Amino acid sequence: MAELLGEDAVAERLEALSGWRYEPAAKAIRKSFQFADFAEAFAFMTRVALAAEKADHHPDWSNSWNRVEIALSTHDSGGVTERDLALAEAIEKAAAR
Questions:
Q1: The model scores a pTM over 0.85
Q2: How far is CA 38 from the centre of its chain?
Q3: Element housing 71 (H / E)
Q4: Mean pLDDT, all residues of the chain
């Protein structure tokens, strides 16, 4: 099981991840992404799916046409861990393509 991070540690790490926010009630970090159209949103989701599978750590997400909402939490640890922050970094790289 991954070590749970405190709120201060999460906040500090999120400073380097533009647009990500911590939601204490959900014990998760979250970000909304918007793309030109459904095809771009779906391509982004495909890139994220490959990164998530490689990390064996999968996001909670939803898609509506050109929007993708992503929440990350390590459920078996009960909140945000380094695994979530590492996947958030990979998601940022996927969004930059």
A1: yes
A2: 19
A3: strand 67-72
A4: 96
